[in-house]
Design a protein that fits this description.
heterodimer, A: mainly alpha, Cytochrome Bc1 Complex, Chain D, domain 2, two-stranded antiparallel sheet, 15 helices, 4% strand, elongated, B: 389 residues, Sulfite Oxidase, Chain A, domain 2, Immunoglobulin-like, five-stranded antiparallel β-sheet, 24 strands, 10% helix
Chain lengths: 346, 389
């Protein structure tokens, strides 16, 4: 990592740094190619307050209302009042110096060209640049009407009359003056010792309690509640004790690598408590093969059917998995071992 | 004291072979770090497509933000762009409007620079007082990355600037077609067109295949998925520099063109999401500081809400307009603490209190809240976001 300026660079590197700076100065590299007129027309869509960039075209308030109700009102409200947290487009007059300012095209935006430019480049949300130039003129006219900036329903906005319209808040912006207004106070050497007599807590975040809780904790809790429901539903069919007993015998082949029951842990293979009904590769702390992991990404779940198919032919059913078991060919044994596994809950 | 089973019992990872080199062709953090993720504050916005998530600052150290944890802010979601189909156009007040492919861009001389990117609205929810419990939420709209890219002036020179050129308008290729007006002076000074972050290709959520880097200036100007730069003689006053990113004052007037990010710092540990778990004794306070105007030669830390201050220890490289790391180590006696940090930048600017900012700017400016943050630590080590007199 090099320093950012010669001033910061270590002395021996200063010369090299200066050379780096000089490398590309005031020369051309012969890179790129001239942009074609059609390409410029396709991309150069920006509009400025002085009207530069406005295309030919026009649209009326009435035309705008129709498009607005179809394509805009679902978020911005029938009258531009904004629905939920979506932005309001109208109203808010006289609120800017209040405790709760409402910033809309009518109350806050300084230039009408911004409305045209933004609607044209980014709206409707999710279908950007789908409106024709005339439609954008019409919508801009309708937004003016919603804000009582034009009051004639037959008003037509066009490239020709566009710059005649000014928005009420245009004069209420001033250029960054932090350097003049703030720096004198904020560049003083601050106090280090005995700076205050007493310190009191004046406000606490906990009172508001709007901090999002840990997403992982929430998901875990939801998953736990789902599992309880699933377990309760499955409890309806009682296991066949004879079949389970048979399955326990079959499971002896599996025991070298897999544990079940209370205190079961991962060994060569993962523990199998609750395996029927759980997602593949879901046991915490077990390193699954990439084959299992990619199955997990597909959302593969162990059902009685998929488990039977896997146990019958492990390598054929999930290619590339690591279980060193040739397969359980006897259908009765398969049924029994799955019945046995079903008796162990997570 | 019983013998520690972590020592006396052989764990699986010491007995069984682990995965081979093909198991993780693009590595991920340990599964035990799965809680270290960007998080969203759902009530903030109407839709995650036009929203923000936050860098888990309390889980990080040093000055570099890992690529997968850099906070995201999109206005119309993540554009997924095939670099072979991406173009950068330069037009407007230039001698020859030009089109570049990604391959063209990579043939310019390129440079490596470390810069922070902070959203102007970082800490914006705290203007009216302590609100969110965690530095991830109060300060997490920042990341600090090493960029590899081409100085913008080389690309502009290639097209040839006309004498009337005074502003540029970078534009994104996403469905928001993000635009901002930037004065030409800044564009020719230290702006970059970057295609790598921390050595690898930009992440899609950070503007793959190419983004603008505007060192020290508010994050919204760092246009992602950069497809076009127009050169003009006046600013465009587009939506993100009028309706948004203007700072409303109590008078009803609003500051515009507040581009530079003022000096700021925050203690990342301890903090509400990272309480002191070890009880009284040796305790480390650490945090980050940054300034859009230079470096951070000094950070002060207080344990008593600002009665007495101590100079923190700065550690790690100090780059211009980059994040800096500080530490303050002490023996905690278990009594409650009111922790604050205060950054000094290389221009002599000292991070102000929130109250000093409110006296000038009121509570409705949304953007550029760089006031001093207070964490209250109770005798159990639990930490809360508070404000003090």
């Amino acid at each position: 990592i090099t320093g950012d300026s010669p001033r910061q660079a270590q002395a021996p590197f200063a010369a090299a740094f200066a050379a780096e700076q000089a490398e590309g100065e005031a020369r051309k590299f012969g890179l790129g190619r001239p942009a074609l007129p059609e390409e410029l027309a396709a991309w150069d869509i920006d509009v400025r307050p002085d009207g530069e960039g406005l295309p030919e075209g026009s649209g009326t308030v009435a035309e705008g209302e129709e498009i607005y109700l179809q394509k805009c009102a679902s978020c911005h409200g029938d009258f531009g009042e904004g629905i939920g947290r979506w932005p309001a487009l109208s109203g808010g007059g006289g609120t800017l110096s209040s405790e709760d300012p409402v910033k809309t095209v009518g109350s806050y935006w300084p230039f009408l060209s911004t409305v045209y430019d933004y609607v044209h480049r980014a709206m409707p949300f999710g279908n950007a640049q789908s409106l024709s130039d005339d439609e954008v003129y019409a919508l801009t006219a309708y937004i003016l009407y919603l804000n009582f900036i034009v009051e004639d329903y037959d008003f037509e906005l066009s490239k020709d009359n566009f710059t005649e319209i000014t928005l009420p808040n245009e004069g209420q912006f001033f250029v960054d003056d932090r350097e003049e207004v703030e720096f004198e106070e904020f560049k003083r050497e601050p106090c280090m010792k005995n700076c205050k007599e007493s310190v009191e807590i004046t406000m606490r975040a906990r009172v508001l309690d709007v901090t999002p809780e840990d997403e992982a904790a929430r998901k875990e809790r939801e998953a736990a509640s789902e599992e309880t429901q699933v377990a309760a539903a499955e409890g309806a069919s009682e296991p066949d004790p004879a079949l389970v007993e048979e399955g326990e015998k079959v499971f002896r082949q599996c025991k070298a690598c897999h544990q079940v029951g209370e205190g079961a842990e991962n060994r060569v293979g993962p523990h199998l408590n609750g395996v029927v009904g759980r997602d593949i590769a879901a046991v915490d702390g077990f390193r699954y093969s990439p084959a299992f992991q990619s199955k997990a990404e597909e959302g593969f779940t162990w059902t009685e059917e998929t488990l039977a198919a896997y146990l019958k032919d492990p390598r054929g059913y999930i290619e590339g998995n690591r279980m060193a078991y040739p397969g359980l060919k006897d259908e009765d044994d398969l049924k029994a071992v799955i019945a046995y596994l079903k008796t162990f809950e997570e | 004291q019983q013998p520690d089973p972590a020592i006396t019992e052989l764990p699986d990872w010491s007995r069984y072979n682990g995965e081979g080199v093909d198991a993780r062709p693009y590595g991920s953090p340990s599964e035990f770090e799965s809680h270290v993720v960007r998080r969203n504050v759902e009530w903030l916005t109407a839709d995650t497509v036009s929203s923000v998530n936050f860098t888990p600052l309390h889980e990080l150290d040093g000055i570099i933000t890992p690529n997968g944890l850099c906070f995201e802010r999109h206005h119309s979601g993540i554009a997924e762009i095939d670099p072979g189909q991406h173009r950068l156009m330069i037009n407007g007040l230039v001698e020859t409007p030009l089109v570049f492919t990604m391959e063209d861009l990579m043939r310019f001389p390129r440079e490596n620079r470390v810069y922070f990117l902070e959203c102007a609205a970082n800490s914006g929810m705290e203007w009216r007082g302590a609100q969110l419990n965690g530095c991830q939420y109060t300060h997490g709209m920042i990341h600090n990355v090493q960029y590899t890219g081409v100085p913008l002036r080389y690309i502009l020179q290639e097209a040839g600037l006309k004498s009337s050129a005074a502003w540029i308008l970078p534009e994104g290729a996403d469905a928001a077609a993000m635009t901002r007006s930037i004065p030409l002076e800044k564009a020719l000074d230290d702006c970059m067109v970057a295609f790598k972050m921390n050595g690898e290709a930009l992440r899609p959520e950070q503007g793959y295949p190419v983004r603008l880097v505007v060192p020290g200036w508010e994050g919204n100007m760092w246009v992602k998925w950069l497809r076009r730069i127009e050169v003009g003689d006046k600013p465009w006053h587009h939506r993100e520099e009028t309706s948004k990113y203007t700072d409303l004052f109590p008078s009803g007037k609003a500051r515009r063109f507040t581009w530079e990010m003022d000096a700021k710092s925050v203690i990342t540990n301890p903090s509400p999401q990272a309480p002191i778990a070890h009880g009284p004794g040796r305790t480390i306070i650490t945090g980050i500081a940054w300034s859009g105007r230079g470096t951070i030669p000094r950070v002060d830390v207080t344990l008593d809400g600002g009665k007495n201050w101590h100079q923190a220890r700065m550690s790690g490289p100090s780059f211009n307009k980059s994040m800096h790391r500080f530490y303050y180590e002490f023996d905690w006696d278990g009594s409650p603490l009111l922790l604050q940090s205060r950054a000094h930048d290389s221009t002599g600017y000292v991070q102000p209190t929130k109250e000093a900012l409110r006296e000038i700017r009121g509570e409705n400016s949304i953007y550029h809240n760089n006031g001093i943050q207070t964490w209250y630590v109770n005798e159990k080590g639990v930490v809360e976001n508070v404000e003090v007199s």
